[in-house]
Amino acid sequence: CGGRSCKKFHELHFSNILVDHNSLHVLSKISRSHITTLDFKYCINITDLTMSQIVGDFQLFNLYISGVSPNLTGDGIGMIHGCEYLRRLKLNSVGDDHTITDALQLILHHCTHLEALCLSNYSNINFQALRISPSLSLQKLCLDECKELTDLAFGVFIGSCSTHLRHLSISMCDGFSCEGLKCISHCTHLE
Length: 191
Prior knowledge:
Order of helices and strands: EHEHEHEHEEHEH
Helix content: 25-40%
Number of strands: 7
Distance between the termini: 42 Å
Strand order of the largest sheet: 1-2-3-4-5-6-7
Strand content: 15-25%
Radius of gyration: 17 Å
C-alpha cells in the first residue's frame, strides 16, 4: 500500500498478534476506512480503549472477536453499539462480566442492520433481560456454550426475534432442554 490508499483492502484477520489501539488507528488512516471486516482471534492485548478506537475509526459490517484479553470488559463490548451498519457480530468468550447483558442490549438496540449474532462461551448473559428491537431483522442466531441460557430465558429472548429468524443454532447450553424447543415453533421462517 505504501502512502497510497488501500481501496481494495476490505478485511483484516488477526490471530495471536499484539494489536493495540494505536496500530489500528494508523491502519485506519492508511486504508482510508475501507476496511469493513475485522476478525480478532486470541489477540490478548485488546482492551476497552481498543474497542473505542475501532468504533471511531472503522465503518464495520462484520466484527468477529474470540478468545481475547481479560482487559476487554462488557463495557468495551458495549461500545460496538456505535457500529451502526454492523451486519454480523460473533463474540466468543470476551467481555464476560457483570456488564455483558447491558452491553449486548445496547448493540441489539442500536445496530439496526444486524443480521447475524453468534455468542459462544458465556456464563454471565441474562437472556431473559435481552430484548431485540422490532426494527432489527436478525436472521441468524447462534448460541453455543451459553451457561445461563435456560428454557424460560430462551422463550423470552427468541420471542422477540422470531419474525425474521431463518437460522438457529444452539449447542452445549446446560440449562436448555427439550422444553425450550417448544419456543422454536414461533419462528415461522426457519430453514
